[in-house]
Structure formats: structure tokens, C-alpha cells
Write a structure and sequence with these properties.
With about 210 residues, this protein is α+β, with helices and mostly antiparallel strands. It has helices at about 1-35, 180-190, 200-205; strands at about 40-45, 60-65, 85, 100-105, 110-120, 125, 135-140, 150-165, 170-175, 190-195.
């Protein structure tokens, strides 16, 4: 009986020693992996659902900790880099905040208006339009009895100040007195085209 108890006690001690050894080996392995991955870094993610084009606030953001080895270009670690900017796309909770997916909020002078023109069967524009381009607005409207349709230049040299990430719309800066005409033409025109006219690029190409 005593011999059996000694064997059991010996097995228990051995089991305890083996468990300690296993725990030590696991700890050493985890430490080695963490050393390879480097220090941990806090990166910004969405704390809640954030609609596109909404200025980012501190409450929209939270941080998650990642090994520095997993840090990729575009990940943001400092809230000051993005607070006040707008996201180009809707962000679900937990989505990474990426520097190339946010931009400065568009500031329009008091005597100007920002009008978004959405691509449709009526509104047409190049897919490669970008912020900084200038466009002429050409409209085709119903004509009089002598001609079925009439095509004319509505506005010229409008700056492109905003572009959707998927190129589904562009925002142009319009003098306040011309804004009603451009808005109305989106309903009245048979076709409204934006033609890019950026002299600087034309000169570079030549």
C-alpha cells in the first residue's frame, strides 16, 4: 500500500515537473516569436460604422495592437493624421483606417458652390478625371422647330475639386450665380458632358 502511494506521489511529481517544463518551453517559444515580430504598435481602426464623406472625429476611432512586423504602408498610428478628414468609402466597425483612403475636407469659397454630377445616361465624363482638372460643360437640349436638338457650351473652366473613389460622380466648383443653371440642366438636358481642359497637362504632353 505504501509502495503504491510512493509510486503515485512519484508520478504526480513527475507530471508536475513535465507540465512546468512544457510551460517553460511554450513561454520560450512565444518569446522567440514575439522577438522576431518586434515590438507591438497601436494602429487606428473604426470604432463604429463611418459613412463616406463624413469628417472623422476622435469618437469614430479606436486602436488595436499589432506586432510591428505586420505594420503595412498606409496604416495610421496617430489620430492627428486623420481627424477632420473624410473617408472616401464607408467603413464598417473594426475596419483599418488607411491614409490613402481619407482626404482633406473640401473647402469652398463663399461665392462658389460645390455641385456633384453623378454619372448616368444623361451625365457623362471621363473615368480619369481627377481633382485639379478643369472641365467645360457641354449640353445637348431639345431645339426649336428648325432643329430637333441643340448643343451648346453651358459653362467653361470649372475646377474639379472632388471625385468619388469609384468614379461614379465628380464635384465641380461653380460660381454661385451659375449653380441654378447647372443643377437645372441635369434634368432638362438630353445629354450633359464634362470635357477636360487642363492646359498644364496639354503642354506637358506636347
Amino acid at each position: 500500500m505504501r509502495e503504491a502511494k510512493r509510486h503515485i506521489a512519484g508520478f504526480l511529481v513527475l507530471a508536475w515537473l513535465l507540465s512546468c517544463l512544457a510551460a517553460y518551453l511554450v513561454y520560450e517559444r512565444v518569446s522567440a516569436v514575439e522577438a522576431q515580430l518586434g515590438d507591438r504598435v497601436d494602429v487606428l481602426v473604426a470604432a463604429e460604422s463611418i459613412p463616406a464623406q463624413v469628417p472623422l472625429e476622435e469618437r469614430h476611432l479606436k486602436t488595436v495592437s499589432l506586432p510591428s512586423a505586420f505594420l503595412k504602408p498606409g496604416m495610421v498610428t496617430d489620430p492627428a493624421e486623420v481627424v477632420g478628414k473624410v473617408s472616401l468609402v464607408e467603413l464598417p466597425p473594426g475596419a483599418l483606417i488607411l491614409s490613402h483612403a481619407v482626404k482633406d475636407r473640401v473647402v469652398i469659397p463663399a461665392d462658389k458652390r460645390l455641385i456633384r454630377l453623378y454619372r448616368s445616361q444623361v451625365v457623362q465624363f471621363d473615368f480619369d478625371l481627377m481633382v485639379g482638372d478643369e472641365v467645360d460643360v457641354i449640353v445637348t437640349v431639345p431645339g426649336d422647330q428648325a432643329e430637333r436638338y441643340r448643343t451648346e457650351l453651358l459653362l467653361s473652366g470649372l475646377p474639379v475639386v472632388d471625385v468619388a473613389a469609384d468614379r461614379s460622380w465628380v464635384g465641380v466648383e461653380v460660381p454661385v450665380e451659375d449653380a441654378p443653371r447647372l443643377v437645372g440642366m441635369q434634368v432638362q438636358a438630353v445629354l450633359l458632358q464634362l470635357l477636360r481642359v487642363t492646359p498644364q497637362r496639354e503642354e506637358e504632353a506636347s
